[in-house]
Write a structure and sequence with these properties.
The complex is a heterodimer of chains A (187) and B (487). With 187 residues, chain A is mainly α. Chain A contains 9 helices and no strands. Chain A folds into 2 domains: 88 residues, Orthogonal Bundle (Rna Polymerase Sigma Factor, Chain: A); 86 residues, Winged helix-like DNA-binding domain superfamily/Winged helix DNA-binding domain (Arc Repressor Mutant, subunit A), CATH 1.10.10. Helices cover 68% and strands 0% of the residues of chain A. Classes of the chains: A mainly alpha (187), B alpha+beta (487).
């Protein structure tokens, strides 16, 4: 699919092209939104807002880059804004400057499937969840995360270290539980 | 330093994370995008309408302004010096009693030949523009028909049309040029004539006269002095001359009436729903039992815009312009539909799609809705003047118009789903119409007014109804055309 042509058609107001663009990226983007939120309904809300932003700002797309990457960045920004605005997430997004927590050297093997892993990430407190998603998956630096979330770089590092440790411990528990053929219980 | 294998593994797995979003997400996104498009349309209108008005006003001004600049000098209106506003042209010895009487009673008659009055020589063709300033002093009826003298190279060329006008009117024409002086006399109510004076035989620019009142009769109002003759009424006869150069005239066009739409055939609709082409059927109440899917009644419609016309001959007039035309009609629909099921799917696991977000209604007679459409029209027409009357000319008009849907607030019937919805995609946004009108000309203080009934029919079906009958817009109403007179 020629994404650049698709964008040009969308900019002309072609409804078919807009639907095509949406259908091409919606599933993957819902996956992105899912990681940042606590429920599928919230994820769908973020997806909807994100795509409205996409169509609203499509004229700003630089044709030199990847359309998928550009849409993904909009989705991530929309998700972060959604967390900031939504009262359910606001309280847990309050970041406190804490003592720097060193990142664990542990690199456990991730034997969980995609959905299981995503569900574990979503079990993290919202602040941890956002920072973990931004750093580990999106590849943002802590300086960038600090700017995005309005926190200090050190806070981002510390929160990420805690999130990482917590997730690793849950993965181990989950893997162990599965080895014992027992049902996974929420950590 | 930790090795971010864990992060890479997580990243890899999360790349594969995908979920299929429900249909309602796209419905809401589409709605938002459509709303933005509508806002853009409103934004467009906010600037288009003032622009059209400015262009119309500028056009009218530009069209009539050149009257002031004949020969590069101010051209002044001329009327008779007598109290009753008659302009006495030429020799007061003329035999017409009214003219003679007027001349006698007005010793300062500016155009009275043989007098020593300084304005008596104003008609000298060689000094027309200058000398006519004196004539202006004799003005007594500013609202009456004015006589303006110009020069041939600047003015339009009057000609045979005047002669024809006079003949067509059936009124008596009195030639007063036989006395060799070239003097002519205005007679009767407000008639106005200025002719070739004795001085006009001198060398110099030839005298041309502008009679704005005649523009109302679609005649080029520039008249060569030598060709003028007089008549009893306010018509001016002309012995001959070059063919007139016909000019564009600008004005305004407005109308109001009723617009209707065809009924959709319910039998065809049922057939379409039952056929393989239809994918859905309504879950709500069924359509009405009548032969039409729903009741369609005419509602108010009006139009307005700019109007341009140009006489092609004495009988034929070409016109065009640009209108904003509002159509509406009242339809009946059934209950709102909250969900509908794809008929091709299994009943055990039906796919229920949210329809409430799109304000869908089943066919029926439960409630009535007024559908509104806003079209921008470019009409092109030809008028034929039936009679020869100047007081009440009657015109028959026929024409076509191309229109574009600029906005709509309407429920459209979709034969595939059997539902009414605000789905603008099934509308033919460009329409081709034919129209006809019978107009009566009402000259009023220099303003040309045409008034009469008009009918317009859309040849292009309004909605792509997928085989349930075509719906065409029909408009009937009263049309008013106003063409301001020259200053």
């Amino acid at each position: 699919m020629d994404h650049h042509q698709l964008v040009k058609d969308c900019l002309k107001g072609d409804g078919v092209a807009q639907k095509q663009l949406y259908e091409h990226f919606a599933s993957a983007m819902l996956g992105v939104c899912y990681r940042y939120t606590k429920s599928m309904v919230d994820a769908e809300d973020v997806l909807q807002e994100g795509f409205i932003m996409v169509f609203k700002n499509l004229h700003q797309f630089a044709f030199s880059g990847e359309l998928g990457g550009w849409i993904r960045r909009i989705m991530v920004n929309t998700a972060i804004n959604y967390l900031k605005k939504n009262s359910r997430y606001q309280t847990e997004l309050l970041f406190t400057d804490s003592v720097l927590h060193p990142v664990s050297d542990e690199d456990p093997e991730v034997s969980l499937n995609t959905k299981e892993l995503a569900d574990l990430i979503r079990q993290l407190p919202p602040g941890y969840q956002a920072i973990f998603n931004l750093h580990a998956i999106e590849g943002y630096s802590h300086v960038e995360i600090g700017k995005i979330l309005g926190i200090k770089e050190g806070t981002s590092r510390s929160q990420y270290a805690r999130a990482r440790s917590l997730l690793i411990s849950w993965i181990r528990k989950y893997t162990a539980a599965n080895k014992n053929e027992s049902t996974y219980v929420r950590p | 330093m930790y090795d971010p294998k864990f992060e890479k593994a997580i990243q890899q797995k999360m790349e594969e994370l995908e979920f299929r979003p429900p249909e309602s997400v796209w419905v809401n996104i589409e709605k938002s995008v459509v709303v933005k498009r509508r806002r853009k349309t409103a934004f467009f209108w906010r600037y288009l309408l003032p622009a059209v008005l400015v262009v119309a006003v500028a056009g009218v001004y530009w069209h009539y302004a050149p009257v002031h600049s004949v020969a590069g000098k101010a051209i002044l209106p001329v009327a008779g010096g007598s109290a009753n506003g008659k302009l006495q042209a030429g020799d007061s010895r003329n035999s017409h009693p009214a003219a003679a009487g007027s001349a006698e009673s007005s010793p300062a008659d500016p155009l009275a030949a043989g007098t020593d009055s300084p304005v008596g020589s104003v008609a000298q063709a060689g000094h027309l523009a200058t000398d006519l300033s004196g004539i202006s002093a004799a003005l007594s009826r500013p609202a009456a028909r004015h006589l303006v003298v110009g020069q041939k190279e600047n003015g339009g060329i009057g000609g045979a049309a005047f002669n024809e006008t006079a003949e067509e009117s059936g009124e008596e024409t009195i030639n007063k040029t036989a006395d060799g002086t070239g003097d002519e006399t205005a007679v009767g109510g407000e008639a106005i004539l200025a002719g070739r004076s004795r001085a006009a035989d001198q060398k110099g620019p030839e005298a041309w006269f502008f009679l704005p009142g005649l523009a109302d009769q679609r005649l080029t109002p520039m008249v060569h002095a030598s060709a003028l003759t007089t008549k009893k009424s306010n018509s001016v006869a002309m012995a001959g001359g070059p063919h007139p150069r016909r000019q564009w005239e600008a004005g305004f066009d407005a109308g109001g009436g009723l617009s209707g739409l065809n009924h959709l055939n319910s039998d065809q609709a049922k057939g379409a729903l039952a056929s393989g082409t239809s994918s859905f059927y309504p879950v709500g109440n069924a359509s009405s039992g009548s032969h039409s899917i729903s009741d369609v009644r005419p509602e108010a419609s009006f139009e307005g815009g700019i109007y341009l016309q140009r006489a092609l001959s004495d009988r034929w007039i070409f016109n065009t312009g640009m209108n904003l035309h509002y159509y509406s009609n009242r339809i009946t629909v059934g209950q709102p539909v909250t969900a509908y099921v794809q008929s091709a799917y299994s009943y055990l696991a039906p796919t229920v799609l949210a329809a409430a977000a799109q304000s869908m209604y089943s066919a029926g007679d439960t409630r009535s809705v007024i559908n509104k459409y806003y079209f921008l029209e470019i009409p092109v027409g030809l008028q034929w003047k039936i009679n020869k009357s100047h007081l009440l000319p009657i015109f028959v008009e026929g024409g076509v118009s191309l229109s574009r849907l600029m906005g709509a607030s309407a429920l459209f019937y979709n034969a595939k789903t059997g539902l009414y919805s605000k789905d603008g995609d099934i509308v033919n946004k460009t329409q081709f119409n034919v129209e006809s009108a019978l107009l009566v000309g009402l000259p009023f203080r220099g303003v040309n007014i045409q008034l009469g009934p008009q009918i317009q029919y859309g040849l292009t079906p309004l909605v792509n109804t997928q085989g349930v009958g075509d719906q065409h817009l029909l408009y009937t109403g009263i049309r008013l055309v106003v063409i301001p007179g020259r200053k």
